[in-house]
Fold this sequence. Notes:
- The chain has a domain at about 35-110: Jelly Rolls.
- Helix content is about 0%, strand content about 50%.
- It has strands at about 10, 15-25, 35-50, 60-65, 65-70, 75-80, 85, 90-95, 100-110.
- Strand 1 (about 10) and strand 2 form a beta hairpin.
Amino acid sequence: MKVNKLSDVVAYEAGGHFDMKGFRLQGHDASDAENFWVGLSYFLPGGGTTHTATPLEKCYVCVGGAITIKTDDGEATLENLDSIYLEPGEGRSIINNTNEIATILVIMPYPPK
Length: 113
């Protein structure tokens, strides 16, 4: 068992993100999870990401505020406990169009070794 308290986790920089503070809750340097990692991202009003695609599938769960996810096929705004699955290679951008902080959980596998 590996318990991580939010007060103890360390922030990390995520490329292509702006006005965002991210924390790894499990995986990477936060635990020995081998197949996935979980992050917590706080997006300030107007904060977001560039439009990019990665070869990895990902899942976002909104746990506070509202956040808009744009893909090549459309967009969706997630609110409390709404989630979205993005397929490998699916381009996406994230934007907080509100005047409140938006908080999402990020669940992703590791890149292939």
